[in-house]
Amino acid sequence: MNLETTPDAADEFQTAKLATLGRILSEVLHDLRNPLSILSTSLETVRDAKDKERALAMTLDLMLRNVERSREIINSLLDFSRLKPFSFKPADLRAVVGELLDHLRLKCEQQHIELGLEAARDLPPVELDVQHVKGALLNLLMNAVEAMPKGGSLTVGLASSDGRVSIRVADTGGGVREADRPRLFERYFTTKPHGTGLGLIMVREVVRQHGGSVEFESVPGKGTAFTVRLPVRQGS
Questions:
Q1: What is the pLDDT of residues 19-42, one digit of tens each?
Q2: Is position 1 within any domain?
Q3: CB–CB of 68/146 below 8 Å?
C-alpha cells in the first residue's frame, strides 16, 4: 500500500499537533500513572521483604518493563510536540542505519531475532536531517521487533535508483490485518495494547520533510515491510 505524503497531509499534521497537544498530554499523564504505580509497589515489596534477594529477582523484570514503557510514552509526547526545524546535510545512510542496528543488536539477541543489513555497494550520500531520520527509522525498527515477541528475522535493505534511495524494514512477525491497513497512519490508531498511535505519524512527517514517500506491504502470518524512499538531493 502506497502512502505518498502530500502538503495537505503535512498541514493537517501541524494543525492537529497544536490543537490536540493538551488532550495528548492528559492521556500521556494518565498512561504514566500506571507504570509509576507499579514501580512504586515493586520497590515497596523489595523494601519490606524479609528475603530481599528473592523479592528483587521476582520484581526486577516487572520494573524494567514499566521503566521502558514510561520512556516510550515520554518519547512519543516529545516527538509529537517538538517543533524543531529540519537541517539537511550529506550523510552516509549505511552508517546511520548501521548505528541504529548496533543499538538494537543486544535486544534482538535476547529476543531471538536475526538481524540483517543488505546494502548496495554504490549507495550515494543523501541529504538528511540525521536526527529526525534516526528517530523515524528507530520507530519502524522497534515496531518490527515488537511484532516478533517469539523471535524471527528483521532485515533492513538499502538500495538506490533514479536519484532516490530506499530503506526497507522487513520483519517476519504476524503481519497487519486487512481491516487495520487503511488506518495505520491515523492519529491515535494503534494495534498495541499500550501504544500511543503517534509513531507512524511522525515517520510520515519526517519522510515528507525530506521530499520522500513511505509505503508498506504485509502478509498476515508472514510479516510486514515498510519502505521509505528519499531523494538523494533535496528538491531533486
A1: 545 555 655 665 666 677 777 777
A2: no
A3: no
